[in-house]
Amino acid sequence: MLLAAIGSRDLFLSIIEFFFLMIMIMIVFQVIGDLFRDHEMSGGLKAVWVIFLIVLPPLAVLVYLIARGPGMQQRALDQQKALDAQFATYARSVAGTDTPTDQIAKGKELLDAGAISAAEFDQLKQKAMS
Predict the structure, then answer these.
(1) Per-residue model confidence as pLDDT tens digits over 62-78
(2) In whole angstroms, what is the distance from residue 20 CA to residue 14 CA?
């Protein structure tokens, strides 16, 4: 009975409205993410932007994109570079693979410190080269 009262035009318009609502929500979250990614802006100013986004989302997003839009890409790139560097450091620490040169240099430091003998250093060097 309920479906009979809803026409295909009403259904289509509801889908379009839902689509634009989801787009607006995604844009608001992107702006909020950019706000908290920016370390140069004070906390009070961030709070004002968030309140503005809650009260008047379409206008706030438009003003934010005009006022601070050019810096959004740079902040996103900076964050991505920092995450890439952090992952590379983590991957190197977990993999534990040193280059043969690094292994020989560490062995030489141990030999100079007297922690290993010359024979052990030669073994380490052969192992690193193979």
Answers:
(1) 999 999 988 898 999 99
(2) 10
For residues 13 and 76, give the distance between their C-alpha atoms in angstroms, rounded to a whole number. 35
Model pTM? Answer: 0.60
H or E segment at 1?
none
Angle at 56 between CA 52 and CA 62, to 5 degrees: 85
Residues 106, 121: Cα–Cα separation, whole Å: 10
Domain boundaries, the chain: 2-97, 98-130
- Report the 10 Å Cβ neighbour count for 107: 20
Which sign, positive or negative, has the C-alpha torsion 77, 78, 81, 83?
Answer: negative
pLDDT surpassing 70 at residue 2 = no
Alpha-helical runs (H) found in 38-117: 43-55, 57-95, 100-113
